[in-house]
What we know:
Low-confidence stretches: none
Amino acid sequence: MFQRPLSETVMAYLVSLAASAFMMFFFHKLSFDDPWSIWLNYTLVLGLPAAVGGAAGRLAV
């Protein structure tokens, strides 16, 4: 299912965004009391370098 470039890319971005949101919650930068817009902003800011690093790692392998 994830052997096509588009679906593989989308899945990689979703995993990096989910990992970013989890890390922000784990290190107490976000809490469940925060509004969704703060969650979205923080996750996107941290998810961008994660996605770029993941893409660079895919190219290296």
